[in-house]
Amino acid sequence: MNITGMSEQWITARIKQKGDCKCIPWRNLRDLILVHPDMKKMADIFTLSIYGLVVFPKALGYVDEAVSDLFDRLDKRVTPVPAILAETFRSLNACRRAGEGRFIGCMQLLLAWFHSHFWKVEKVFYRVFSEDYSHLKKLVAIPMQDDISEEKWLAILQNLQDKDVEWRAPWMLPNEILYRCGNFD
Asked: Residue 142: exposed, middle, or buried by beta-carbon count in 10 A (0-12, 13-18, 19+)?
């Protein structure tokens, strides 16, 4: 596990085993954020915490070591989208196989992905080159129905056809793609 600017001894002293993964408690990262003298590293640790607690939650109050690995790759300009989707589908599949369970992932990101892939979107490629364009800001501005029943979602997803799915978001620029996150390919 690598945490911006921290020694291996500092990390080893704080790492805990949670289920099948090694994690670091959020409280240790919070304490580090509060006292770290370097503002950039402080912001990096805070961002790592958000990724670990919100985007890739594994154990309540802990940040998984695979998230730290992913976070290190972000500096190399590697897109996290495939890793986020892989984790999301892994969690949904685990719930489906068990017939119950808790979805471990960021529901808001999953909804944003649904809206940009499952319903055809306006293809205006030049927008991605604009400094002030944000697909997520545009998505947030769209009024969403939050009264859709589970049965309705099941009907929508079961009746999807190939023509209804955009397999690559039109606003995503081709770039390096992250193929691994921790132990997951």
From this structure: exposed
Is-contact 49 63, C-beta < 8 A? yes
118 and 62 together in one domain: no
- pLDDT, tens only, 106-131: 666 666 666 666 655 455 555 555 66
Same domain, residue pair 125 and 52: no
Give the number of residues written for the chain. 185
Based on C-alpha coordinates, what's the Rg of the chain? 19
The upper half-sphere exposure of residue 46, i.e. CA atoms within 13 Å in the direction of its Cβ, equals: 10
Same domain, 50 and 123: no
Residues 98, 102, 18, 46, CA torsion sign: positive
For residue 64, give the DSSP letter: E
